Amino acid sequence: QVQPVESGGGLVQPGGSVRLSCAASGSFFRINAMGWYRQAPGEQRELVALITRDGTTNYADSVKGRFTISRDNAKNTVYLQMNSLKPEDTNVYYCNLNANARFGAGARVYWGQGTQVTVSS
Asked: Which conformational region is residue 42 in: left (phi greater than 0), alpha (psi within -120 to 50 degrees), or beta?
């Protein structure tokens, strides 16, 4: 089983920065795309940023130029560097991993437990 383990987040002032990390633990064959989503209470979960295994990235328009997603394939870890944070970035952020649990098995999506980011003075 693939278990995404998130870290980072917390309370940060407007204009500040924070970095989220998500490491894939457990037993798996390969991690494919890795991403971050966020979800406010009562709203649908939305894509924040995505990175493929070869490093191609995709961002939500609302975070372009402020957030940077990166990954370390050797560590099976994805990062989200969040700069110039705004109060509207306040959300629970979820790590999303697309992975093959075993050789020959189809890819599945695995979600982290979520980490709170609060932007407030």
From this structure: left
Q: Tell which phi-psi region holds residue 104, choosing left (phi > 0), alpha (psi between -120 and 50) or beta.
A: left
How many angstroms from the chain centroid is the CA of residue 43? Answer: 18
**Which tokens go with 69?**
């997603």
Distances (CA, A) of 112 to 16, 18, 21, 38, 53: 24, 18, 11, 11, 19
Query: pLDDT (tens digit, 9 = 90+) per residue, 17-73?
Result: 999 999 999 888 999 999 999 998 889 999 999 999 999 999 999 999 999 999 999
DSSP conformational letter for 27: S
* Cα(96)–Cα(85) distance, integer angstroms: 21
| Cβ(6)–Cβ(19) below 8 Å | no
